[in-house]
Design a protein that fits this description.
Radius of gyration: 23 Å
CATH topology of the largest domain: TIM Barrel
Bound molecules: ligand LLP
Number of strands: 21
Distance between the termini: 55 Å
CATH architecture of the largest domain: Alpha-Beta Barrel
Number of domains: 2
Helix content: 25-40%
Strand content: 25-35%
Structural class: alpha/beta
CATH class of the largest domain: Alpha Beta
Length: about 425
């Protein structure tokens, strides 16, 4: 675990977190370099028996320094926008290890992906297939593709992050996908080389993934018999983490289930983990500004807000909250931010050691979908980000300033 107490002080690796606050101020995201590397290694090892490619889901955390770690580890990326493609390539991720999903890629984004010569585009509708074929043909290219199949399997997670039921907008229904493959074989600008699924995120039960893998391997088999030799199965991301003792399975548990199926099918594997790589490697470090009590509640008001970490209000997500310096005594408190919304909370009715103004708190497991979903709501500059490597620390993104809030604005002449 990268965040541990030594003599009542919370550390990241070998560095007391209070040093980060003293150097960069708060709120500040803090990531453990070694934890990210270890989690990449665990995926590698779990699937080492078969040919595989780890395509880190950039949406979980798109910090340039983190993408650089991913590149240095020899991994690829799963991107969902021109912006993510740009950031991944700039960080040095090999385009030939990049896959591109998303239901609404624009013509410009498709063109950029073709010209960047990425490994493959994951097609999410038959209309996208037509458009991609048209653009690739115009450029005289043959673009490798996978179809993202919607297997209509319940991933058993929060409805907002479920993506594999017929009522969800993602992927192509099985029968349509089958027809899509036969159609794609006739098209001059695309080359089907893979099949893609992604069921949902924060999955703590493996049964839906194994059921979906079995289902689409059957389709791979049928297509191969009909002369379409698919090389890759991309099982998406979605592996959950333990925010609150969920007992989330690790990559080795997933491998134990699916490796036998994949070995039998002689097919290359792509995995797209995001949260499982960076989720537990990051915290949001925040300072207590005020403590106040109502007759029914004790509030701890911190300097981070829902604009910094949206997961608690958006999904009612649980993030453990720890005092950076432990004191004696206990109290039950609501930890809330300064934003003008009652949904601006990090944790309600939490039992913590006594908290006083200026204390530091760590909002745990915030490495995934933390900073990447942050906003400037209430005109709050976004937080700084730092990474810890042993006992050293490095700033990887400066805290935004007030001028960053207005830099892109223009006042029309008639208002000048
Ligand atoms: N691949 C595809 C096609 C995806 O859509 C996603 C996530 C991933 C991979 C990575 O999933 P992961 O391994 O991180 O579960 N904002 C939400 C999570 C949204 C996930 C969207 N897609 C949250 O904070 O829980």
């Amino acid at each position: 675990m990268p965040f541990t107490y030594h003599a009542g002080e919370l550390y990241c690796e070998n560095l007391p977190l209070r040093e980060i606050a003293a150097t960069y101020g708060t709120p500040c995201y803090v990531y453990s370099f070694h934890d990210i590397v270890a989690r990449v290694g665990a995926f590698r090892e779990a699937f080492s028996e078969i040919e595989h490619l780890l395509c880190y889901a950039v949406k979980a955390n798109n910090a340039g320094a983190i993408l650089r770690i991913i590149a240095q580890q020899g991994c690829g990326a799963d991107v969902v926008s021109g912006g993510e493609l740009f950031q991944s390539m700039r960080a040095g991720i090999d385009p030939n290890k990049i896959v591109y999903a998303g239901i609404g890629k624009s013509a410009q984004e498709l063109e950029e992906a073709i010209l960047a010569e990425i490994l493959m585009i994951n097609i999410e509708s038959l209309a996208e297939l037509e458009l991609l074929n048209q653009i690739a043909t115009q450029h005289g290219r043959l673009m490798p593709i996978a179809l993202r199949v919607n297997p209509d399997i319940d991933p058993q997670t929060h409805p907002y992050i479920s993506t594999s039921l017929k009522e969800n907008k993602f992927g192509i229904e099985m029968e349509q996908a089958r027809r899509g493959y036969y159609h794609a074989m006739e098209l001059p600008g695309v080359k089907p080389i893979g099949i893609h699924i992604h069921l949902g995120s924060q999955m703590v039960n493996l049964a839906p993934i194994t059921a979906a893998v079995e289902l689409i391997l059957k389709m791979v088999d049928d297509l191969r018999q009909d002369g379409l030799p698919l090389e890759y199965i991309n099982i998406g991301g979605g592996l959950g983490i333990d925010y609150h003792h969920e007992g989330a399975p690790g990559p080795q548990d997933l491998a134990a289930y699916i490796l036998p199926l994949l070995r039998a099918a002689k097919i290359k594997l792509i995995v797209e983990p995001g949260r499982a790589i960076v989720g537990r490697a990051g915290i949001l470090l925040t300072k207590v500004n005020y403590c106040k009590s109502h007759s029914k509640r004790h509030f701890v008001i911190v300097d981070a807000g829902m604009n910094d970490l949206l997961r608690p209000p958006l999904y009612n997500a649980y993030h453990e909250i720890r005092a950076v310096t432990l004191r004696t005594g206990e109290q039950v408190v609501d930890i809330v931010g300064p934003v003008c919304e009652s949904a601006d909370f990090f944790g309600c009715q939490r039992r913590l050691t006594t908290i006083k103004p200026n204390d530091l708190l760590a909002i745990m497991d915030a490495g995934a979908y933390g900073f990447s979903m942050a906003s400037n709501y209430n005109s709050r500059p976004r937080a700084a980000e730092a990474i810890v490597c042993g006992e050293e620390h490095f700033l990887i993104r400066k805290r935004e300033s007030y001028s960053d809030l207005i830099d892109l604005e223009q006042i029309p002449n008639f208002l000048a």
